Amino acid sequence: MEFDKNIIEKILIEDLKNLIGYDTSYPPGRTSEISNYIFRILKDCGYSVSLHENKKGLTNIVAQMGKGSPSLVLNTHLDTVGPGDLGNWENNPFEAVIVGNKIYGLGAANCKGSGAVQLWLAREIAKKGIPKKGQVTFTFVTDEESLDGNGTAFLRDTKAISPDILLFGAPTNNSLIIKERGVLWVEIISYGKSSHAGEPQRGDNAISRMIRICNHIDMTMSFKLENRKYNGMESTFNLGKIEGGKNTNVVPNFCRAEIDRRLLPNEDNNEAFHEIEEVIKNSGEPEGSYKINKLRGTNGFSGKEDLLLVRTISKSYEKITGDTIEFTNAIGVSDGRYFFDDNVEIVNFGPGIGSEGHSNNESIEISSMVDSAIILYDAIGKILVY
């Protein structure tokens, strides 16, 4: 089927403008209003649509058509990071602005651009009627930016979706990501004893203890992870947050830090947590002067290039663009990690450049969205036979 790219462009621009206009920034990542907007669109298209909440305000959409196998689930997240200092934005981050081939606005690349593409896909697939083979499900979720369990993980756990194939709309610049690192977040709490800053020797400084612990972890983990690599990916460690103390003239009795560990597909998050526990135990700090908690932990995944969706997207990409598709590695993580052990084909593919996400004056190329839409329509047609 031949498409008029100018018509597709106008539809994608209008949808993306509308999506950017909803403030879904995390915290708190509320998506009730934007979900009601999408609900009406998909309902009018003939999908069986339902809203799902595990936490009030964090609304997810599931829209289904067809039945049987294969069950193809498309997913994009509606929540974004916060805009930060508005003075660093050239325009209102919640008002889409077009400059040349780009649309600017918060979430344009990560991931409302893919949201617009998947809305277009949902409409076009619905025009063809019920798929002749299998079931197609569109999911628009929240709680992705917090790496928490009230979005895609909740849909999986409640069996609102049971995919054979999962397609995540990520800003991959229309390349394929089929392997991804896992993620582990660890909280460290150090304890001390308060005293007046004029007599610090009477106290026990919890911040100083945390500094010693963090220096020890940083040095030890840097050595341990130096040679841990997997197909171009690296195992990493980052101290992302530290907070403590209540006043400058008081010796602090409490300090808190958070660590981010990115795990190779062949690493296990539970083993990685125990490794950090052992490192901290060897820091020399007295037992009972600190506590370690696991905040998040999911494993990575590694797919194969000969699986169904990978093959079909690759062929459609070559057909539409005349080029061979590229495979790339993700900097961040997707909700695909919740399905790492479910024998599900997991693919990340979508318009936009990953580095644009989480940045001031975020943007996406309109032509990238148009290409993504046509490629996916062609590829999905080969699977669902519409």
Describe the protein's architecture and organization.
The mean pLDDT is 96. The protein has eight helices and 21 strands. The chain has a six-stranded mixed β-sheet with strand order 2-3-8-4-9-20. The chain is elongated and about 80 Å long. It has helices at residues 5-20, 32-45, 108-127, 152-157, 206-225, 269-281, 308-321, 366-384; strands spanning 25-26, 48-53, 59-66, 71-77, 80-81, 97-99, 102-104, 135-141, 165-168, 179-180, 182-191, 195-196, 229-230, 233-234, 236-244, 250-251, 254-263, 290-298, 301-302, 345-348, 363-365. The longest helix is centred in the N-terminal third of the chain and has 20 residues, at 108-127. The protein is an alpha+beta fold and 386 residues long. It is 32% helix and 26% strand. Strand 6 and strand 7 form a beta hairpin. The chain folds into two domains: 5-180 and 301-384, Zn peptidases (Aminopeptidase); 187-298, Alpha-Beta Plaits.
